[in-house]
Design brief:
Layout: H1 4-15, H2 17-36, H3 54-90, H4 95-107, H5 115-145, H6 154-159
């Protein structure tokens, strides 16, 4: 029989995975996307001395504001997507993964006509999915060997990891 302190510490161990799936995931995906796609100088960043008018500078500022809001929304969407995938995998429901991919593709369908947007989308989505799967496996291993055994062992059993009697 373990003491109450030990049980609390084991319980807190589960919460370590939340920042991993959300904040660490956002940082990882941002790093992968930005390091894998060349930086392109937008046409609207031409200075007035180079022939650009004040309207172009104002448009550039508005575009930066819109890009900033899109980036913040993308981070929230990415975090929620990884939480949904993690939840589905913890419960042994792979269908959740398919549903998240279908929902993202449907929501961004028009943007996928532009090649660079499609590349950002695919790189970010695949990295996000792989991160969620990796964290799900780690959380299931924690649950099985150090935790309370809260989650079904479907995913670990499907992985066929040697030495696991689940």
């Amino acid at each position: 029989m373990t003491g109450i302190f030990e049980q609390v510490m084991i319980g807190l161990g589960y919460f370590v995975f939340l920042p991993l799936i959300w904040w660490a995931g956002n940082g990882l995906i941002k790093w992968v996307v930005t390091s894998s796609v060349k930086t392109v100088v937008p046409q609207s960043s031409i200075s007035p001395e180079q022939g650009g008018g004040s309207e172009e500078i104002q448009t550039s500022s508005q575009q930066q504001d819109a890009d900033s809001k899109e980036l913040r929304a993308g981070r929230v969407i990415g975090g929620l997507e990884r939480l949904l995938i993690l939840t589905g995998l913890l419960l042994g429901k792979w269908e959740v993964l398919v549903a998240v991919i279908a929902l993202k593709t449907t929501a961004r369908y028009k943007e996928l006509d532009k090649q660079i947007r499609a590349e950002y989308f695919l790189i970010g989505s695949l990295c996000s999915i792989l991160w969620a799967v990796a964290i799900a496996v780690l959380l299931l291993l924690y649950d099985r060997f150090a935790g309370f055994g809260l989650f079904p062992s479907g995913l670990l059993g499907q992985l066929g990891l040697p030495g696991l009697k689940i």
